[in-house]
Amino acid sequence: QVQLVESGGGLVQAGGSLRLSCAASGRYNMGWFRQAPGLEREFVAAINWSGGSTNYADSVKGRFTISRDNAKNTVYLQMNSLKAEDTAVYYCAAGGAFGARHAREYPTWGQGTQVTVSS
């Protein structure tokens, strides 16, 4: 059974940086999503199982970087130049086709980690 454990969320000022981690029980295509109060869960970034391919939502392109360390079965989301509108609960997800952008395409989810950006 696939298990995902996220960490690294917190409170940061606008313009600051955070790095989220997602420890998995194996090697899978992975995605990061986020959900702000009252809004649907939205795609942020994805990486394939080897780490050779990535893609991003337009809203984070150039500011966020997804990467992975397969020796540790861990996927990271480095978030720079954070904005107030990045405030959300961030979730990692596993098992979808690479680059899948709809939450329903991922069968396994972590518990989420809160990111709050103060303006």
Describe the protein's topology.
Layout: E1 4-7, E2 10-13, E3 18-24, E4 30-35, E5 42-47, E6 54-56, E7 64-69, E8 74-79, E9 88-94, E10 108-109, E11 113-118
Parallel strand pairs: 2-11
Antiparallel strand pairs: 1-3, 3-8, 4-5, 4-9, 5-6, 7-8, 9-10, 9-11
Description:
This protein has no helices and 11 strands. With 119 residues, it is mainly beta. The strands form 2 sheets. Strands 2, 4, 5, 6, 9, 10 and 11 form a 7-stranded mixed β-sheet that branches. A hairpin with a 4-residue loop joins strand 7 and strand 8. The chain is globular and about 40 Å long. It starts with a strand and ends with a strand. The model has no long low-confidence stretch (mean pLDDT 95).
Percent helix: under 10%
Calculate the mean pLDDT score and round it. 95
| Structure annotation, total helices | 0
> What does the overall shape look like?
globular
Radius of gyration using CA atoms only: 13 Å
Total beta strands: 11
Instruction: Tell me the distance between the termini.
Output: 40 Å
What would you call the structural class?
Answer: mainly beta
Low-confidence stretches: none
In N-to-C order, the SSE pattern is EEEEEEEEEEE
The biggest beta sheet reads:
7 strands, mixed
Bin the strand percentage.
over 45%
Key phrases:
0% helix, 4-stranded antiparallel β-sheet, 11 strands, 119 residues, mainly beta
